């Protein structure tokens, strides 16, 4: 399960950055392309975000995280690049 969590953490981080790229780079230059890409990128990111949060709770005991570490892992889902940090620092045995 930790391998899957690592994959989801990286994919969620990438989808977050792609979503920001769509909002900050594509939207000002091509509004039609922005609108076309918004739903698939947003849906993918939403599914990966929910998967990340659920899997974090699922492996909380398996990784022997304290409540503070679980809170950090959950908070990382809200910050750009933070899921990459979590994947390296907190997820072991994969």
Automatic annotation (TrEMBL):
InterPro entries: DUF3817_TM. It is found in: Cell membrane. Keywords: Cell membrane, Membrane, Transmembrane, Transmembrane helix. GO terms for cellular component: plasma membrane. Residues 3-91 form the DUF3817 domain. The chain crosses the membrane at residues 7-26, 38-60. Its main location: membrane. It holds the Pfam family DUF3817. It is a multi-pass membrane protein. This is DUF3817 domain-containing protein. It comes from Flavobacterium rivulicola.
């Amino acid at each position: 399960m930790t391998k899957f969590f690592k994959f989801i953490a990286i994919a969620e981080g990438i989808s977050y950055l792609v979503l920001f790229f769509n909002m900050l780079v594509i939207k000002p230059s091509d509004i039609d392309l922005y609108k076309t890409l918004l739903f698939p990128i947003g849906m993918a990111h939403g599914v990966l975000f929910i998967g990340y949060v659920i899997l974090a709770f699922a492996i909380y005991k398996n990784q022997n995280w304290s409540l503070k570490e679980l809170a950090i892992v959950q908070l990382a889902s809200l910050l750009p690049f933070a899921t990459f940090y979590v994947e390296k620092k907190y997820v072991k045995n994969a």
